[in-house]
Structures are given as C-alpha cells and as structure tokens.
Design brief:
With 142 residues, this protein is of the alpha+beta class. 23% of the residues lie in helices and 37% in strands. The longest helix is centred in the N-terminal third of the chain and has 26 residues. The chain is globular, with a radius of gyration of 17 Å. The N and C termini lie far apart (52 Å).
C-alpha cells in the first residue's frame, strides 16, 4: 500500500514535469525570420523505422526525417509543394506563420505528408529529436 500511496503523491509532480518538458520543446520552435513563414515537419517515433521520409521541394532535398524527429524549414510566404517519392502536399505559408506537417506511413508502408496542427505536434514533441539543417548528406534515408 505504501508504494501505491507514494506513486499517487508523485503523480502530480510527474505530470507537471511532463508538461514543462513539452512547453520547453514547443518553446524551442522559434518565430520565423522577419518576412518569412516556416513549416515544422515531424515524424512519430513509434512507426516506420525502416522507411525513409526525405522531403523535397522543387526537386531539391529540404531535409530527411528519420522516425522520431522533426525539423524547422523557414520559407517565403506563398504556396509550396513538398514531396516524397510517393506523395505531394501543397502548403500555403503566410508571413509570420508556422505550419505543421506530419510524415506518417499509410497502407503498405508508403510515407505520406499531411497538414496537421500545433496540438498534434505538441502531443508528440517530447519524444522527438531535432534534425540539423540539410548539408547534402548522401544517406539512404529516402
């Protein structure tokens, strides 16, 4: 009975610590640079460890997105088309705005990009690692 009582007493502090970690991670998403907008791409840590999610725009790699990661892509206001080998997503970005795009697996393991909201990102962000900016690495994570 004593361990159950201790767990019950510690639960509120664990919830508070969890909320603080989430707020810290969300606060780590800076405002876009002046005159720009941005897109936060993210991928759940729970599925698709062997399937890559390399995001392209206009034929150029924006960044790769291994499972359990996210990256921030500053961009000009307007409509942008982001693509994977198997999917294309149009995203309208306004000046000062942050859009959220999730890479997930559908069907037989094909990656898919979907426009999401900040709440969906916040739900996962504690378990995600930030991917550094793309440097032209020739890895196999397509």
């Amino acid at each position: 009975m004593l361990p159950a009582l201790a767990a019950a007493l510690l639960a509120p502090s664990a919830l508070a610590a969890d909320a603080a970690r989430r707020e810290t991670a969300v606060a780590a998403i800076p405002a876009p640079p002046a005159g720009m907008g941005q897109v936060v791409f993210y991928r759940s840590p729970n599925i698709g460890t062997l399937i890559g999610c390399r995001v392209h725009e206009d034929g150029e790699v924006v960044n790769r997105l291994p499972h359990g990661t996210y990256f921030i892509h500053p961009t000009t206001p307007g409509i942008h088309e982001y693509e994977l080998k198997t999917d294309l997503l149009r995203v309208e970005v306004e000046e000062g705005e942050t859009q959220y795009v999730r890479c997930r697996l559908i069907g037989a393991g094909w990656p898919d990009l979907s426009l999401r909201n900040r709440t969906d990102f916040e739900r996962l962000v504690r378990a995600l690692d930030l991917v550094p900016p793309w440097t032209g690495d020739k890895g196999t994570d397509d």
